[in-house]
Design a protein that fits this description.
Strand order of the largest sheet: 1-8-9-2-3
Helix content: 25-40%
Radius of gyration: 15 Å
Number of helices: 5
Shape: globular
Distance between the termini: 15 Å
Number of strands: 9
Number of domains: 1
Largest sheet: 5 strands, mixed
Strand content: 25-35%
Order of helices and strands: EHHEEHHHEEEEEE
């Protein structure tokens, strides 16, 4: 699973270096986030067309305004990822008095491959092989 720290897929450099193919465009896509302070990590399967969205759009759709229960019912995330996601949400967003996620907490930074990401830029998509299946991971 993507949230199993011992079985994280490795980057397939040959596939990564090749131009995108039709089968690559339809490959399952995942958004994976790790909180570097707590080492909590979650992964959620996203719509493959959304893999080119800017970071702030990905975060709004798949983290802030998501239904964790729906992710579980639709088999888009594991229970371990669901627990990590709810914990990470509390660090990323202000909570209303009723527990609803509000705007992002000021000062939260995102890194990918040791480089900081601008919120309005799309993150890099890694093409990897997981259990023999090509997937795309953000």
């Amino acid at each position: 699973m993507l949230d199993d720290l011992n079985h994280t897929p490795k980057t397939n450099e040959v596939l990564h270096a090749q131009p995108a193919t039709r089968s690559d465009q339809s490959a399952p896509a995942f958004l994976q986030l790790t909180d570097v302070l707590t080492e909590r990590r979650f992964a959620v399967r996203i719509d493959p067309d959304d893999s080119s969205l800017a970071l702030n759009s990905l975060m709004a759709k798949y983290v802030q305004r998501c239904s964790v229960k729906a992710y579980l019912v639709e088999n888009r995330m594991t229970p371990a990822s669901a627990n990590a996601l709810t914990s990470i949400q509390e660090y990323l967003y202000h909570l209303s008095d009723f527990g609803a996620l509000q705007g992002p907490v000021h000062g939260v930074a995102f890194r990918q491959h040791d480089q900081f990401l601008a919120h309005e830029e799309p993150p890099t998509v890694a093409r990897v092989i997981a259990d023999g299946t090509p997937i795309r991971v953000i």
